């Protein structure tokens, strides 16, 4: 979930880390996130209303699938 250099840091450090600290988020993707949504840190990503909505929709879809 995190790049190796961030595996043994505190939660506060992760939240304040650049979004590129997340495994699979390249410097190029980090730049796109910054340009499009002003997302610079993992915390910014977590608080972004569009990403929060996407997570909520995904969780709701999983619940609906379980009820079927």
Q: Catalogue the unreliable spans.
A: none
Counting helices, strands and paired strands, the structural category is mainly alpha
Q: What is the N-to-C succession of helices and strands?
A: HHHH
Number of domains: 1
General shape:
globular
DSSP strand tally: 0
**Beta-strand residue fraction:** under 5%
The end-to-end distance, rounded to whole angstroms, is 31 Å
Number of helices: 4
User: What's the pLDDT, averaged over the residues?
Assistant: 97
Give a structural overview:
The protein has helices spanning 11-16, 27-37, 42-47, 49-67. By secondary structure, it is mostly helical. The chain is globular.
Question: Which features characterize this protein?
Answer:
mainly alpha; 4 helices
Offer a quick outline of the entry.
By secondary structure, the chain is an all-alpha fold. It contains four helices and no strands. 62% of the residues lie in helices and 0% in strands.
Topology at a glance:
Blueprint (H helix, E strand, L loop, with lengths): L10 H6 L10 H11 L4 H6 L1 H19 L1
């Amino acid at each position: 979930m995190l790049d190796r250099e961030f595996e043994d840091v505190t939660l506060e450090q992760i939240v304040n880390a650049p979004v590129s600290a997340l495994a699979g988020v390249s410097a190029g993707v980090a730049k796109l996130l910054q340009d499009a949504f002003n997302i610079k840190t993992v915390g910014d990503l977590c608080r972004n209303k569009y990403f929060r909505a996407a997570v909520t929709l995904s969780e709701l879809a999983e619940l609906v699938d379980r009820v079927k």
